[in-house]
Design a protein that fits this description.
mainly beta; 2 domains; four-stranded antiparallel β-sheet; 50% strand; elongated
Length: 120
């Protein structure tokens, strides 16, 4: 009997698999949803900060963070690079401002509308 963890459509299941015979494929014996693991703690910069959030226009994965807290940016400067549907998308500053918070980390998956950075 082997215990495996399988994720289907974002839901994790603990599955016990028993091998029947030497060459046959394993068959599932029992499956029960696994409670989701606690979310990883966000970076300290994720704390609510004064300023206007720049939100993700699409779901994707953060490939690169081009700014840090305290940086001054001009309208059109790249703040974050997101990968969505195998394409790299530059998320630009909507106005001249100062970065007051960075809400994401490199490699993090984000949903559409998620705050990426805050500008003040």
């Amino acid at each position: 009997m082997k215990n495996l963890k399988i994720t289907v459509n974002g839901v994790a299941y603990d599955v016990q698999v028993e091998e029947v015979g030497g060459d046959s494929a394993p068959s599932a014996v029992a499956a029960a949803p696994v409670p989701p693991a606690p979310a990883a703690p966000k970076a300290a910069a994720s704390a609510p900060a004064a300023g206007e959030p720049v939100n993700s226009p699409m779901p994707g994965t953060v490939l690169d963070i081009k700014v840090k807290v305290g940086d001054s940016v001009k309208s059109g400067d790249t703040l974050i690079v997101l990968e969505a549907m195998k394409m790299e998308n530059s998320i630009a500053a909507p106005k001249d401002a100062k970065v007051t918070a960075v809400h994401v980390t490199k490699g993090q998956s984000v949903e559409s509308g998620a705050a990426l950075v805050s500008l003040g």
